[in-house]
Amino acid sequence: MVVLMMKAKRFALNKQAINLTLALALITLLSACSSEESLSLSNKSLVYCAEGSPESFNPQIITSGTTVDATANQLYNRLITFNAKDNSIKPSIAKSWHVTGDGKMVTFYLRKNIAFHHTDYFTPSRTLNADDVLFSFNRILDESHQYHQVSGGSYPFFQSVQLRSLIQEIERINDYTIRFKLHRSDSSFLANLATDFSVVLSEEYGQQLAKRNERQHIDVFPIGTGPFKLKEYKVGSLIRYYRHDQYWQGKVELEQLVFDITPSNTGRLTKLLTNECDVVSYPIAHEKIVEHPNLTLESVTSFNVAYLGFNTQKAPFNNIKVRQAIAYAINKKSIVDTIYSGKAEIAKSLLQSASWAYDDKVVDQIYSITKAKELLKEAGFENGFEMDIWAMNVQRPYNPNALTMAKLIQSDLKDIGVEVNIVSYEWATFLQRVGKGEHQTVLLGWTADHPDPDNFFTSLLSCAAVGTGNNSTLWCNEKFDELLQKALKTGNIEKRKVYYSQALAMIAQEMPLLPLAHSKRYQARSNLVRGNILSAFGGIDFSTVTKVAGGSN
Amino acid sequence: MVLLTIVSFSLSFLFPGDALINLSGQINTSPEQLIQLSENYQTENSIFMQYYSYLGHILNGDLGLSMSSQTPINTEIANLLPATIELSMVALLLSMVIGIPLGFIAAIKHNKTADNVILSVAMIGYSIPVFWLGLLAILIFSIVLSWLPSAGQISLLFEIEHVTGIQFIDILLSDNAYKWQAFQNASEHIILPACVIATAPGTIFIRLARTSMLEVLETSYIRAARAKGLTFNQIIYRHAIRNALVKIIRHVGLQFANLVTLAMVTEVIFSWPGIGRWLIESIYQRDYTSIHSGLLVLSCFIFIVHILTDFIYAALNPLARDNIHGS
């Protein structure tokens, strides 16, 4: 309307005069923004283009990698954490810890003066102490805890490692000492506490919310001790973090950290190329990024495995010879070359060569059509048979393209007379149906939560995991489980190594699943961003990241 | 308006699923809540009573909950609609400022090279599909030349408080230290999508302006003015432009509907946080409550713009004014 009025007037005036004023206005507008200002804001802030929205702001209650990336290392700290260099455990909130000789009592000595976030919705009156640790773990363990049922009462990571049946009691010795009493010794216990899921929340904040009867806010408006605090979250659009000024590990360089949620792969690439994002997750078009002078492509060997799992409860895969025959007939090298563009390690076993429990004596499954045919003949399938491969239609860190992988396997198996149908469902349904055991074979994978090798074995192949959906092979072998239990009970790393190599040999023999590849996790960033973001385990971390001058945004 | 509400109301029956849930958007209800709801919407009564209670809800500003996010739709729309209005207004202004003068030039140089060039450019501009033009613009101006950003309303680094929802006004109202920088950034962001949207209506304005100018130049009063010995410039500036403009303004309302449709597609391409993108996402997510409420609001908005332009037309044109008040 105003526009139209202006237009009407415009012709009453001299046109040239108008042009002049417009030009002047434009010049003032442009000169008003000095270049100094521009430098300062983009230097102190970083935009990360993430692939999806977090489900929650509390890593205790989720397992998705996207949520861990967005929350765990940004908002929180754990008692202990992993050393990025050698994957050993190092102190974090706990400055030191002590494990008794029988391994049944673990005492943590907490650091003093660790400040919680000061935000629009919470002002802490005290620093972190043993009450906060107690609160955080009791929420998971104690079903009668007032926060246990908030947000659904499901703690998938802790359920899968059976923390509740492991911990007998958590005892608060004094303000800065806390003791975990265990039912049995478990060598993966410390590693589990060092994962991104075992964060420490604020007890004081919990009490305040309970008083106001707003308990559900604890996972929506998070309070932690991490390097950043939440400022704003727009679902499906952005997360805005501000620096936590009293961060106990020293000053964080970035003042602002923004997660720009861009689910489209091409969208993230475009934003990277146009400088709208400084760092993007899971980039596509690797060659293009490598060629670009201002961009860097980086990768980290994350501990994961992509595998073909056989449903050992369904015919014909209840026959060990059929499983072995299929394993012989699959050409892993061509799969790794095609699907991962050769940028992954061919999986010889469930464990990666970087794991301490890796056994170099375990030989890779050889690729041999004749052997496969022989085995099929022995099993009574000389004329082949028909089978289903289930493949997901989403990109996962361990498998960028499961459907194409299924097609490659399809053509491989044609050589031994096996007809393959490829089945796919929407991701959530897919997992649900696999959990129920409706598949014949499935292309899946596993990303480790921590460097302890037990995370691969127990989660993927133990009898306890059969009902949980993690063990997609439904394979349950008592001898195998016994080996795993023995390995967990002993603290002696050499003995554990022996047990695990026996377990690996058993998998190679029984073939409940065929490991295919260990992939890398990729990330692309602008050259102006310095510092480590990716780590081998768990989520990304921006606490040590800086930006150098010279940026235009 | 009544017709619109009837259409929107009947949509809730035509969509799959329970009509009551489609209307209210409450998917996780307990049986008690469901009874309460059906009382609210009077589903037990005749269809007319149901419609009546639906109207009551709308007039009270209750459009139900979004099925996918479970937030009230009216707050979502209040957050998103201003962004669309802003984008459409800038695009409309742009298309008029560029289209109308070009049309006039074409008319003045009738049947000469300039006329032909402008007409053929207009034809091409009108024929290019907007989604293709949008992608092309991103490729050229964002990726290859890196002049302009490709997505969003403003760089996410600027934290602008949501007051009116119209970004430029909000920036000026905010006490952000980087106000001018934010203003410049927001301007950079709006250029590409606005130009893309403006292309098609702009070319229509060219042709409208050309035709109406030609008509005006044929009229007797122009001939009279010419006979009085006025120079050509005087005739054009004092008489022809004003009279030709009045005719064009009548069409602005019509073009606005076209423009909003284009804006919806463009919002998706440029990730503009407006109602068009939200509506298209709702369609993907089969969020029926959002779809029919969103359509209702958008249609009402276009309707209001139509009425407004008619008023303006009447205000500017004494002849039309007399028609309304007269006889």
SSE topology:
The complex is a heterodimer of chains A (553) and B (327).
Chain A: H1 2-10, H2 15-32, H3 35-44, E1 45-50, H4 65-75, E2 80-82, E3 89-91, E4 94-99, E5 105-110, H5 130-141, H6 156-160, H7 163-166, E6 167-174, E7 177-182, H8 189-193, H9 203-211, E8 228-234, E9 238-243, E10 256-261, H10 265-273, E11 279-281, H11 286-291, E12 295-301, E13 304-310, H12 320-329, H13 332-339, E14 345-346, H14 369-379, E15 386-391, H15 402-414, E16 419-423, H16 427-435, E17 441-447, H17 454-461, H18 478-489, H19 493-510, E18 513-518, E19 520-526, E20 529-530, E21 546-547
Parallel strand pairs in A: 1-10, 1-11, 15-16, 15-17
Antiparallel strand pairs in A: 2-3, 4-5, 5-7, 6-7, 8-9, 9-10, 11-19, 12-19, 13-17, 13-18, 14-18, 20-21
Chain B: H1 2-14, H2 19-24, H3 31-40, H4 47-59, H5 73-108, H6 113-127, H7 130-144, H8 167-173, H9 179-218, H10 220-228, H11 232-269, H12 275-284, H13 288-316, H14 318-325
Distance between the termini of chain A: 34 Å
- Could you tell me which chain pair has the largest interface and how many residues each side has? A-B, 35 and 36 residues
Q: Largest sheet of chain B at a glance?
A: none
Shape call of chain B: globular
| Total number of strands of chain B | 0
Indicate the overall shape of chain A: globular
Order of helices and strands of chain B: HHHHHHHHHHHHHH
| Proportion in helices of chain B | over 70%
Radius of gyration of chain B: 24 Å
First CA to last CA of chain B: what distance?
Answer: 27 Å
List unreliable stretches of 5+ residues of chain B: none
What portion of residues of chain A is helical?
A: 25-40%
Structural class of chain A: alpha+beta
Percent of sequence in beta strands of chain A: 15-25%
